[in-house]
Amino acid sequence: MTKITIPDLHRKKQQGEKIFGVVAWDTHMAAIADRVGVDIVSVGDTVGKNLWGHDTMFEITMDEMVIVTRAVRRGVKRALVSADFPYGPLQEGVDSAVRAAIRLVKEAGIDLLKLDGAADYPEVVEALTRAGIPVWAQFGLTPQTALASGIPYQNQAGATEAAAGMQERLIAEAKAMEAAGAVLLDFTNSGPVIGPKVVEAVSIPVIGGFGGGPWLDGRVRLAQAVVGYNIAALDKEPSGYANVARVIHDALSECAEDVRSGRQIKGQPGR
User: Fold this and answer.
1) Which among 89, 105, 99, 177 has a CA at the least distance from the CA of 138?
2) Phi–psi pair at 95, nearest 5 degrees
3) H or E element in which residue 104 lies
4) Is the separation of the CB atoms in 99 and 105 below 8 Å?
5) Considering the entire predicted model, what is its pTM?
6) For 51-97, how does the pLDDT look when each residue is reduced to its tens digit (9 = 90+)?
7) Is 125 left (phi over 0), alpha (psi -120 to 50) or beta?
8) Distance between CA 24 and CA 40 in Å, rounded?
């Protein structure tokens, strides 16, 4: 099994091959994604909101990011493993960011670090690059920057029109992050108008989640969204590729009925 490298991603852009990243937060989901052959398994700070029930992603801590990233690292053999900073280390300045990044490298084994709002901190991108830590710079209208643009977190998925009005600024930010040493860009809410222009403006790959599309060098998607693993999928059919929540619900219901009826449960040896 040949491990993916950052130069591999750069070659994909040059050759017109799409890059695929999956956001995962546990060993088994990460291992399944790795078996599929994804290029990146990304440990997002949205784990707090989307998996652990926090009100926002700002509540996640550095200790929690280390724990969840270590779990993902154990499941991945081939893909690159990326992790987000929680809110704080980047905003506190260069020294804080470098210390936090080194911790994620040493304790969690990351291959690259994703920085939300990196365009406002080119000095941090440069410092991390000097320290030998590859940076995946996220920009556009992101979870950590949407509020500054007057867009609530829950509405950011529909913010591509707002991003289109920032064309010159966003192209300049993309170029500045490449110049600072970023090896990969995550353009959130790119849209089909400005997205292709940013892709053409830089030599490093530009991929995206919210508001992305085939006009980018690749996509990144929450594994839970792909498979329909959330409570809402029980009440409304998800728009992804499966409804795992329904499968889990029905299996647990069947198991509960066996227990309450005095039958042996499946998967457990009987007497």
Assistant:
1) 177
2) -60, -45
3) helix 94-108
4) no
5) 0.90
6) 999 988 789 999 999 999 999 999 999 999 999 999 999 999 999 99
7) alpha
8) 10
